[in-house]
Each structure stands twice: as structure tokens, then as C-alpha cells.
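Supplementary Methods. Inverse-folding protocol.

Structures were first reduced to a C-alpha cell string of length 66. This string, shown here, constituted the complete conditioning input.
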């Protein structure tokens, strides 16, 4: 049996995310320029996770899956 090209487990039904997203799309390119750590540090103290909050970092919110 041949060895897989990488360590990720392949989903047999869905294509990989990098095959779905157009990496040249302006919003994708913009996201690469944003300093996400700065925003997380800046707003992390006032935007806490918990009941009634969206927790996209952990993928717990249905709103984050679209």
C-alpha cells in the first residue's frame, strides 16, 4: 500500500478547503494582510467567549460553518 502524500486524513466526500477557495480572490488576499494577532489581543479582553457568544475559533457556532 502506498504512503499518503501528507498526514491529513482525506475526506472521501468533500474536497479539501484549499481546492474550494479561490486563493486569488481579493477578500482572501486581504485576509492575508490583516494582523489577526493584534486584533485578537486588542479585542480579546472585551469579547469573551461564553453563553450567547460566537466562538468561531473553536468552530462551535453554526454561524461560523458557512
Amino acid at each position: 500500500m502506498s504512503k499518503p502524500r501528507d498526514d491529513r486524513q482525506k475526506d472521501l466526500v468533500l474536497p479539501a478547503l484549499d481546492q474550494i477557495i479561490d486563493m486569488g480572490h481579493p477578500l482572501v488576499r486581504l485576509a492575508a494582510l490583516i494582523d489577526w494577532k493584534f486584533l485578537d489581543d486588542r479585542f480579546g479582553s472585551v469579547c469573551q467567549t461564553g453563553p450567547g457568544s460566537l466562538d468561531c475559533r473553536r468552530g462551535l457556532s453554526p454561524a461560523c460553518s458557512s
